Amino acid sequence: MNNNQFFYLGEDLGMGANKLYGAPGGLQVLSQVATNGSQHLVNTIGLRQRQRPLEIKTEHGSFYIGEGAHDYGRPVENLDFDRLTGAPEMRALLYGSLTRYQMAYGPLRIPIVMMVGLPLQMMSGDAAKEFTNQVRTWLKGTHTWLADGQPQQVEIAEVKINPQPVGALFDHVLDESGNFIPERAGLLKQEVGILSVGFNTLELLVVRDRAPVERFTAGQTVGVRRLLELLNPGGSYSLGELDTQLRAGHLDIAAALPVWAREVNGEIEKRWGAAFKRFARVIVVGGGALLLKDNLTRQFNGKALVADDPVLSISRGLYKLLLMKKK
Questions:
Q1: Interstrand relation of 304-306 and 281-285 (parallel, antiparallel or unpaired)
Q2: Cβ–Cβ under 8 Å, residues 22 and 110
Q3: Tens of pLDDT along 104-157?
Q4: Are 54 and 73 in contact (CB under 8 A)?
Q5: pLDDT tens-digit map of 144-170
Q6: Helix then strand then coil, % of the chain, to nearest 5
Q7: d(Cα 276, Cα 302) in Å, to the nearest integer?
Q8: Which residues are CB-contacts of 127 (< 8 A; sequence separation ≥ 6)?
Q9: DSSP H/E element including 163
């Protein structure tokens, strides 16, 4: 099999944003999906005209995806892990993300080999094998859809699956060619903590000598969504609407942030306690890392290292891992 016949792509199926990373670069598309009600205002006078989100049509219907989608249709906001096994809104989000990727970097004309990052909770317990099989089944194959009325098609030839924090580890120790960074390669022989503060989950993984230490590994649903829930006690807004405001800097989080930070710290304490003192390093990734950077740095007494791009770190690391494996 000729490796040059394939396009290698890291895919982080995040609940807050879908992240893709390949040789040309990476991007994120907010995980906002809304059914298209086709109710559009035209010729408004005195109001600013906004560009509608990308419209994706599949066999399951018509959806808006990405930033602002919840302003244009009925929000589809299911944060259950079953969503990642091929729900209609997840398919629309993937297709929208692949469309945006091709708009940014050019057509994907050759088959894709994809490394997918899944939440730790989907890859542990009795249902883990079923979850991974379902994700692999729906992703693999030829996909067709319409993006703003234009036909699109890609082929995903192979799907590999890893826990999301694994991507963060290999993003740190590998370069863009999938080779070990000499001064960092030794970390794989030590004990390293990986902390991912995502939209839906807080995930903790400890790796020693390239193997997970299961007693230090856990996932809890206290990600950024918990901060947004504290700001939305009456449920007046969708989480997607609040996430958009948060990213734009339009939310006053001064009172809620310390409360959420204590919840996150508490979950870390339950699983790691004082054991983090023996870790060589704690690698911190995820969108929540940007909000809790100072807090986590203090908690880990200087051992914490926030990735240079904590949002794309997982997908970038999964891409690098693909490159390493093909050598």
A1: parallel
A2: no
A3: 999 999 999 999 999 888 888 788 899 999 999 999 999 999 999 999 999 999
A4: no
A5: 999 999 999 999 999 999 999 999 999
A6: 40, 30, 30
A7: 11
A8: none
A9: strand 150-163
Task: Count CB atoms within 10 A of the CB of residue 281.
Answer: 18
Residues 111, 190: Cα–Cα separation, whole Å: 37
Q: Please, are residues 108 and 155 in contact by the beta-carbon 8 Å criterion? A: no
Delineate the domains of the chain, giving CATH numbers in brackets. Answer: 3-326 (3.30.420.40)
Secondary structure of residue 299 in the 3-state scheme: helix
pTM of the model: 0.92
The H or E element that residue 316 is part of is helix 313-326
- Report which of 132, 113, 151 is spatially closest to residue 326, judged by C-alpha positions: 113
- HSE of 127, CA atoms in CB hemisphere, 13 A: 10
Mean pLDDT of the region 264-270: 93
The per-residue pLDDT for 80 is 82
In contact, 194 and 206? CB cutoff 8 Å:
yes
Closest CA to 157 of 122, 115, 220: 115
Q: What is the torsional sign of CA 22, 27, 33, 36? A: negative
Strands 281-285 and 191-197: parallel
Owner of token pair 């590994």: 217
As given in the structure block, the two tokens for residue 325 are 């494996």
Per-residue pLDDT at 121 = 84
* C-alpha to C-alpha distance for 120 and 20, rounded to whole angstroms: 19
CB 36 within 8 A of CB 65: no
Which tokens go with 234? 């009456």
